[in-house]
Amino acid sequence: MASPPDTSKSIKLLRYQSYIRRVNSSKLLKASSKILFRSTLIAALILLIFFTLHNPPISSESPHFHSHTNFLSSALFGGGGAAWEKQVHRSATTRRPGGMTVLVTGAAGFIGAHCSLALKKRGDGVLGLDNFNDYYDPSLKRARQALLSKHEIFIVEGDLNDKPLLIKLFDVVPFTHVLHLAAQAGVRYAMQNPQSYVASNIAGFVNLLEVSKEVNPQPAIVWASSSSVYGLNTENPFSELHRTDQPASLYAATKKAGEEIAHTYNHIYGLSLTGLRFFTVYGPWGRPDMAYFFFTKDILQGKTIDVYQTQEDKEVARDFTYIDDVVKGCLGALDTAEKSTGSGGKKRGPAQLRVYNLGNTSPVPVGKLVAILEGLLNVKAKKHVIKMPRNGDVPFTHANVSLANQDFGYKPTTDLAAGLRKFVKWYVGYYGVQLGAKKGNN
Ligand SMILES: O=C(O)[C@H]1O[C@H](OP(=O)(O)OP(=O)(O)OC[C@H]2O[C@@H](n3ccc(=O)[nH]c3=O)[C@H](O)[C@@H]2O)[C@H](O)[C@@H](O)[C@@H]1O
């Protein structure tokens, strides 16, 4: 999650200042500007009193928190009032005995939205957090938000790096678990916007851990790592025991850094942490920046698609993993996550630290992916077969998932053809595409 939403105090201040300048530049309006200035001051004073009464500062004596914050900063995200807190509570309330209360970061994202729905469906309390950034079409994130809202899941609009906001959320709800899926995703985009990866995947993650270690009770955290941490590893299939010190992209390096940072917070503060290495997850409501998604769009529009080959002219392959399988893995990881052992920023004993592959165990060449799409869309793709650019990509991924299978029964059941069929069905419905019609109808 990179940029904060367009509701910041500074933007409002800029708008206000330019308004004031315009008023002052007009001599005719000089007299009225004085009145306006005075009434603005009075209005600001009234607002300040209102906020103080309805949204008192989070006290360091709060049962869940052992630090203090500035209530004006936490009011910036547009929430904090009684009605807002009611919404947060309603969404986070568990409806089954022994249910968990989960903060899902990146809830308007692909995996976040699916996991939120699955948790809610079985009776767990879910609160979402998302900054709705424009890395890809935000209207898709809004549509996912609308879907979640129908299932009474509320998404707080805010950024991971907003510490007062995170503190506020933990103060309102003593989350038992955090499913941390908010991140700057995408392997190749890291060359265009490297700082966004540092901001979300490192600074944002650290901010979340800083807040999580302080609260009481500390939550157990399950978070999204990536198959890309295997980088240039040549052993196959990838096992959690293999080396992960040769990342091929900055994206991979930030996810690997996340795994090391998780170790530190587990070691010092007793936070229970589980990293999930996702392998090219796809399906309905997916990410438009991923190949299967934009191939579908481009094939339907009659545009040429780049199909990568390795430098040795071999096929590039991925262990494409269907979303429903990944959701089961995420829930399994949450269900088997032990409690954190620390409280109030102090470790009280050793805590759980885990990393799991969540893949499909069956790599498929990109050429085969295209062939399946051609069949489902009933359109011949215009393929441009080229050598994989040196932009962070890796030639091959293949997961060994025996550890996840052993610890929480993870067993992928959807092959690429079946999963893409479901994706295409969703895609044509969502975008209103007529299959079999003339190309370019999308
Ligand atoms: O498994 C993961 O950890 C990662 O999976 C994906 O990354 P990637 O596997 O590179 O997925 P795509 O960008 O959808 O690429 C899929 C395959 O298509 C190939 N490709 C991509 C783009 C293109 O124009 N042509 C092409 O042949 C890639 O080389 C790759 O083999 C996600 O984008 C990452 O966020 C995620 O962390």
Ligands, ions, cofactors: uridine-5'-diphosphate-glucuronic acid
The CATH architecture assignment of the domain at 183-278 and 323-359 and 397-413 turns out to be 3-Layer(aba) Sandwich
Please report which band the strand proportion falls in: under 5%, 5-15%, 15-25%, 25-35%, 35-45% or over 45%.
Answer: 5-15%
Query: Which of globular, elongated, flat, extended, rod-shaped describes the shape?
Result: globular
Oligomeric state of the chains present here: single chain
Strand order of the largest sheet: 3-2-1-4-5-6-11
Name of the CATH homologous superfamily of the domain at 183-278 and 323-359 and 397-413: NAD(P)-binding Rossmann-like Domain
Number of strands: 13
Mean pLDDT: 86
End-to-end Cα distance = 29 Å
GO cellular component, one term: Golgi cisterna membrane
Membrane topology: Multi-pass membrane protein
Transmembrane segments: 35-53
Subunit structure: Homodimer.
Q: In words, what does this structure look like?
A:
- The chain is an alpha/beta fold and 442 residues long.
- It has a domain at 183-278 and 323-359 and 397-413: NAD(P)-binding Rossmann-like Domain (Rossmann fold), CATH 3.40.50.720.
- Helix content is 43%, strand content 13%.
- The protein has 14 helices and 13 strands.
- The strands form 4 sheets. A 7-stranded parallel sheet has the order 3-2-1-4-5-6-11, with helices on both faces.
- It is globular, with a radius of gyration of 24 Å.
- 44% of the residues are buried.
- It binds uridine-5'-diphosphate-glucuronic acid (UGA).
- Uridine-5'-diphosphate-glucuronic acid binds at residues 185-187, 226-228, 278-280, 290-291, 306-308, 316, 318, 366, 388, 393.
- Uridine-5'-diphosphate-glucuronic acid binds next to strand 8.
- Its main location: Golgi.
- GO terms for molecular function: UDP-glucuronate 4-epimerase activity.
- Belongs to the NAD(P)-dependent epimerase/dehydratase family.
- This is UDP-glucuronate 4-epimerase.
- The chain crosses the membrane at residues 35-53.
